[in-house]
Amino acid sequence: MYDTVIIGAGVTGCAVARELSRYEIKACVLEKEEDVCSGTSKANSGIVHAGFDARPGTLMAKLNVQGNRMMEELSRELDFPFKRNGSLVVCTDPADRDRLTELYERGIKNGVKHLRILEREELLSLEPHISEEAVCALYAPEGGIVCPFGLTIALAENACVNGVEFYLEQEVKQIERMKDGWKLTTGTGKIYETKTVINAAGVYADVFHNMASRQKIHITPRKGEYLLYDKEAGEHVTRTIFALPGKLGKGVLVTPTVHGNLLCGPTALDIEDRDGVDTTAEGLWAVQEKARLTVEHIPTKAVITSFAGLRAHEDGHEFLIQEAEDAPGFIDCAGIESPGLTSAPAIGQMVANMVRNKLKLKENKKFQKTRKGILNPEKLSLKERNELIQKEPAYGNMICRCEKISEGEILDAIHRPLGARSLDGVKRRTRAGMGRCQAGFCTPKVMEILAREQNIAWEEITKKGGKSRMVIGEK
Fold first, then answer.
1. Which active-site residues does the annotation give?
2. 297-319 pLDDT, tens per residue?
3. Which of 105, 142, 277, 453 could lock 50 by a disulfide, CB 3.0 to 4.6 Å apart?
4. Where is the FAD dependent oxidoreductase domain (predicted)?
5. For residue range 75-127, what is the model confidence (pLDDT) as tens digits?
6. Residue 157 to residue 164: CA distance in whole angstroms
C-alpha cells in the first residue's frame, strides 16, 4: 500500500511530489498521458505573476505571492529557465484610472513589493511600443517569466530521483473507499491502494472529487488561444504587458518568453469539452486585435505557431486545497487556474505539510534538493564546446537548425530520469522542433534517434503517445 497517490503529473502534482520526497514516504503519481506536463501545464502563458490580481485574503492571493518569492531559488536548485522581467498593467482610458489604483491597493494588501503607478512618459521610456492610447500603468518589478515545461519536468525529475514513482498512461477510472484508505483503478486494470489521495487532476479534478465526496464541486474548462512569434520579434517588449483585468481574467497579454520568442494571448471561452484544445480563426483573430490595444506594431508576419490551453475554473474562482470533510485522506488541489503556475511551489509545500502531519512522516535524510538540466552547449565558450565535442561527438551533430539543438542534447533528454519517449517529449525537454520551421527539418532525424535509442520500429514512434503515430509503415 502507498502512503499517497497523486492523480495528475502537471505542475501542481509534480510540485507536491517533489515536496513529499523530502520525507520518508511511499508515493506515486498516476498520469493518463505518456509524459508529464501534457495537460494544462504545457499550454499557458509561462508568467510568474507578482500577486496584485487576486482578492486579498484568498488562498489564491497568499499562494501567488509565496510562489513568486520561491521561484528564483527553485530555478537555481532545479536548473530551469526563469527571469524576473517585471510586468505592466496598462490603462488606456482615463476613466479607468481608479480601477488601476484599486489594483495597486490590492497588491499592497497582498504583500507585493515595489509596486508603483507610472505615467505615460515613464511608461514609454520603458516600453517604446506601448499603445498610443496608454494613459498610465501599474508596474510590478517582481513579475517574471518561466518555461512551464522546464519547471514541471524539473520538479518531476527531482521527485523521481528522490524516490517518487511515476506511472504514465495510467488513467484513473474509479476511486473507492476502503477501511484504511483508498483504492484507485486505472484504465489498464491496475489497482493502487493508498492511505491518502492527492487530487491534482486539473480540469478533471471535480470528476475525481465527486467520486470520493458527497459534497460536490464543479470545474469549467476555460479555453485560451495563443499566438507564438519568431525570435526576431522577441524584443518587441521586454516586460509582460497586461490590459486591465476583466470578469473572465487578466485578458490578452503580450510578453517575451524565457527562450526569446514573443507570446500573445490568451482568449477566454468557457467550454464543455475537457480536452478541447483546438484553435479557431475567430479566437486567433481576437488575440491579435486585443493585443493591439496595449502594444503597437506587433509583427503579425512573424507568427510561427498557435496553440490553445484549458484553465480549470472553479465556480467560486478560488483554489480548493483541502481534505474533503466526508472523505478522510482525500486531499483536493482543485480549481488551480491562473496564477496556478506561479503558486505551484507554495501549493506543493502546503499539501506536503498536510500529508506529513496526517501520516506523521519523518524527514528523508537522503533528499537531494538539486537537479541539473540538459546541457546547453550555446552557453559554453568556444574552447569548452570544442572540448565537449571531442569527448562526446554527438554534441557536434546538429539536429534542429532553428533552435541549434544537437544529438547530444536529445540523447540526454531520452536517457535522463522520466526521459522523453515521443517527439513532443523531446521537444518539451530540448526545444527541438519549436523553432521557425516548426519541426519541418528535424522530425525525421529525431524519429531516427528515438527509434534507435528505444530499440523500437519507426511505426511505434508517436507525436504525443497513444494513437498519435507518425508513420504507418515503410515502402
1. 49
2. 999 999 999 999 999 999 999 99
3. 142
4. 3-354
5. 999 999 999 999 999 999 999 999 999 999 999 999 999 999 999 999 999 99
6. 9
